Amino acid sequence: MKIRFLPAAVLTLPLLHGAAALAQNHAPVPLTVPVVGDAWTYQYTDVWKGAKGNVNQVLVTAVDQDGVNLDIRRAATGALVTKQRMTLEMNPVDRGKMHFAPAFVRYAFPLEPSKTWQSKATGENVSAGKRWRYTIEGKVEGWDKIKVPAGEFDALKVVVIAYYQGEETGSRGGSGQLRETLWFAPEVNNFVKLDYHDTDWNGSTYNRDS
Predict the structure, then answer these.
(1) Other Cβ atoms within 10 Å of 19 Cβ, number
(2) Which residue range forms the structural domain that includes residue 34?
(3) Per the structure, how many domains does the chain have?
(4) How does residue 183 score in pLDDT terms, banded at 50, 70 and 90?
(5) Which has the closest alpha carbon to 156: 116, 183, 179, 187?
(6) For the chain, which has fewer Cβ within 10 Å, the N-terminal or C-terminal residue?
(7) How far apart are CA 97 and CA 189, in angstroms?
């Protein structure tokens, strides 16, 4: 299965039938493990600066009993950007320079409206010599109809908030909160849009991306 879509620069449409009607039409979404060859293409946008960046392809290169390997490549040239490792639920373990132990829990299948979860993880950037402790809270807010350049999808809106603290003693600069809002479309077995907002300990924005 190869899927190509560009989920950034999204124009959302009014719900045609409302979230309640969408929920009635959908059963809980079970885990469907990706297979080698699955691919998704995304347009990166720096929302804070109002600038579009690279278009990257995410390609599944290997799947085993413990997780999924991904190559991130430039869509235009095929040049390798980085390799990543996810759990079978597509929760990040290795994201290039950042390693999580245990995984950063973005999804907790089966997914259905109002489901919540909590977890903890340690994130480490070995090259920078830094570690952070994460307290993660996730919630499925409900079904949305969302339109992206690849088309219109029924998607579960998932919000993940992670509070993090650097392990450097007394360092406020190493703490903050990140928020991911994802629209997971079962039709493509991945998110069709992701909004990311990272703030420091006093609420100032570090990054705001899509």
Answers:
(1) 15
(2) 18-209
(3) 1
(4) very high
(5) 183
(6) N
(7) 25
| pTM of the model as a whole | 0.85
The burial of 187, by beta-carbon neighbours within 10 Å (0-12 exposed, 13-18 middle, 19 or more buried), is given as exposed
What integer pLDDT is reported at residue 12 of this predicted model? 35
Supply the CATH number for residue 22's domain.
Answer: 2.40.360
Q: What is the spatial distance between Cα 54 and Cα 46, in angstroms, rounded to a whole number?
A: 10
The answer to whether the beta carbons of residues 122 and 136 sit under 8 Å apart is no
Q: What integer pLDDT is reported at residue 74 of this predicted model?
A: 97
Task: Say if 166 falls within a structural domain.
Answer: yes
Q: Mind giving me the DSSP string for 90-135?
A: --EEEETTEEEES------SSB-TT-EEEEEEEEEETTTTEEEEEE
In a domain, 6, yes or no: no
Does 195 or 12 have the greater pLDDT score? 195
For 111-160, the pLDDT digits (tens) are: 999 999 999 999 999 888 899 999 999 999 999 999 998 999 999 999 99
Spatial separation of the C-alpha atoms in residues 134 and 85, rounded to whole Å: 19
Residue type, 132: W
pLDDT tens for residues 52-104? Answer: 999 999 999 999 999 999 999 999 999 999 999 999 999 999 999 999 999 99
Beta-carbon contacts of 209 under 8 Å, excluding residues fewer than 6 positions away, are 44, 45, 46, 47, 48, 195, 196
Name, in order, each residue with C-beta under 8 angstroms of 44's C-beta and a sequence gap of 6 or more.
Answer: 8, 52, 53, 54, 55, 56, 209, 210
The Cα–Cα gap between 52 and 99 comes to: 27
Residue 21 host element (H or E): helix 18-24
